[in-house]
Amino acid sequence: EVQLVESGGGLVQPGGSLRLSCAASGFTFSTYPMSWVRQAPEKGLEWVSSINGDSDSIVQPDSVKGRFTISRDNAVRLQMNNLRPEDTAVYYCAAAAFLHITTQPTQYVYWGQGTQVIVSS
């Protein structure tokens, strides 16, 4: 059974930092691309970052480039710096069932339970 478990969310002031982690089990973690997706209150899913199995391909939207860093070792991590109130959301790690990166949340079949990030003064 595939399991993805996120941790590291919390309340942070604007301009602050948080580091999210996602522990994976039940599949060959090192082979599959992993992604982070977020959902703000009353909004749809928004793709945040993706990294391939070898960590040599990283894709991010412009909204987080230069502020968020995705990495992986025995877990997939999201270092978030210079956080803004609009980054407030539930953050999920997710994976598709194929070996290339996809930035479409509708194609992810494995999801964690999510971790809440609140950016507020």
User: What is the helix content?
Assistant: under 10%
The radius of gyration over CA amounts to 13 Å
N/C terminus separation = 40 Å
* Strands, count: 11
Overall pLDDT, averaged? 96
Highlighted features:
121 residues; mainly beta; seven-stranded mixed β-sheet; four-stranded antiparallel β-sheet; 11 strands; 0% helix; 45% strand; globular
Can I get a quick summary?
With 121 residues, the protein is mostly beta strands. It has strands spanning 3-7, 10-12, 18-25, 34-39, 45-51, 58-59, 68-72, 76-80, 89-95, 110-111, 115-119.
Describe the protein.
- The chain is mainly β and 121 residues long.
- 0% of the residues lie in helices and 45% in strands.
Topology overview:
Blueprint: E1 3-7, E2 10-12, E3 18-25, E4 34-39, E5 45-51, E6 58-59, E7 68-72, E8 76-80, E9 89-95, E10 110-111, E11 115-119
Parallel strand pairs: 2-11
Antiparallel strand pairs: 1-3, 3-8, 4-5, 4-9, 5-6, 7-8, 9-10, 9-11
